[in-house]
Amino acid sequence: MSKKGKKKETEKGHSDEQEGLEERLDGRTYKAALFDLQAELVKLQEWLVATGERVIVVFEGRDAAGKGGVIKRITERVSPRIFRVVALPAPTERERSQLYLQRYIANFPAAGEIALFDRSWYNRAGVERVMNLCTEEQYHQFLQTCPQFEKSLVDEGFRLFKYWFDIVDEEQERRMQARITDPRKIWKLSPMDLKSRRRWFDYSRARDDMFAATDTSFAPWHIVMADDKRRARLNCIAHLLNHIPYEKVPREKVHLPEPDSKGAFDDRATLASRRIVPNRF
Q1: Domain-embedded: residue 212
Q2: Residue 20 lies in a domain
Q3: Any domain includes 263
Q4: Which residues of the chain have pLDDT under 70?
Q5: What pLDDT digit, counting tens, does each position of 161-213 carry?
Q6: Sheet holding 54-61, edge to edge
């Protein structure tokens, strides 16, 4: 797809595409590709159950970079009992006294499951470091022990994937402004997000230090360029599927049976005296 020679300006003065970014993916192409990928995710689900594999996927990145959006598209056509989303709140007083990794380990997948971490133990290397929510000693200890911890997971047989979603400054501003003005999105904008907006370069340095310490051969980081949400979702899902050696699990052909007519009656009529939700639409 060719790049536009001239960028269109929106009402707010932001360009429809960032410098060097290809034209945004059109809706029809996106939906068709997503349909195919979600069908493959169903095959992955059946393979997980059949083999007992355990998969951990970590989603990290800039605020408003689209982590939640890709997780939603991954999970919307599969079973939540197999594809489990882990989005932990701030630790309780009791959890703060535990081993730092303890509450994350408690949410790891059992056989035949995949755990999708919407933010993870890497909070310590990102928001906790930048916002001074941990000590320097705790931070450096984490960077030292994290690769050892992840090596033990891989050696134990877990499949571990780590994705970092990155966007340019202007795109983050545009998305955060949209959260302010859109009543459907305002809940996504937390006080911490507003603080992080001012600390853009602090987060950049924290990101680079995190990569330097934890980007390993056995648990590498994969960067998703997410200025175009649609492309980012498709690229991430395709990458994940391409790196898991799943196969189609044979299943018996499905035949839909007819209702047994024995004892048949007008079952809908029995609802007439019940509380029916009014048809407002």
Answers
A1: yes
A2: no
A3: no
A4: 1-22
A5: 999 999 999 999 999 999 999 999 988 888 888 888 899 999 999 999 999 99
A6: 83-86, 113-118, 54-61, 159-166, 221-225
Query: CA nearest 75: which of 47, 112, 37, 48?
Result: 37
Q: Quick check: is 37 in a domain?
A: yes
Dig out the tokens for 273 from the structure: 């005296």
Please say whether the beta carbons of 189 and 179 come within 8 A. Answer: yes
What whole-number distance in Å separates Cα of residue 231 and Cα of residue 236? 8
Residue owning tokens 């299943």? 251
- Domain extent at residue 193: 27-245
Mean pLDDT for the chain? 91
Q: What is the DSSP string of the chain?
A: -PPPSSPPB-TTS-BSS-TTPPPPPPHHHHHHHHHHHHHHHHHHHHHHHHHT-EEEEEEEESTTSSHHHHHHHHHTTS-TTTEEEE---SPPHHHHTS-TTHHHHTT---TTEEEEEES-GGGGGTHHHHTT-S-HHHHHHHHHHHHHHHHHHHHHT-EEEEEEEE--HHHHHHHHHHHHH-TTTGGG--HHHHHHHHTHHHHHHHHHHHHHHH--SSS-EEEEE-SSHHHHHHHHHHHHHHTS---PPP-PPP-PPPPP-TT---TTGGGTTS-PPP---
Asked whether 200 and 62 are in contact (CB, 8 A), the reply is no
Which has the closest alpha carbon to 117: 125, 106, 131, 128?
A: 106
What's the rounded Cα separation, in Å, for the pair 87 and 135? 23
At 15 the pLDDT is: 38
Tell me what pLDDT residue 22 has. Answer: 60
In whole angstroms, what is the distance from residue 1 CA to residue 98 CA? 51
The token duo for 159 is 């499949």
| CATH number of the domain bearing residue 132 | 3.40.50.300
End-to-end Cα distance, the chain: 41
Number of domains in the chain: 1
pTM given for the model: 0.88
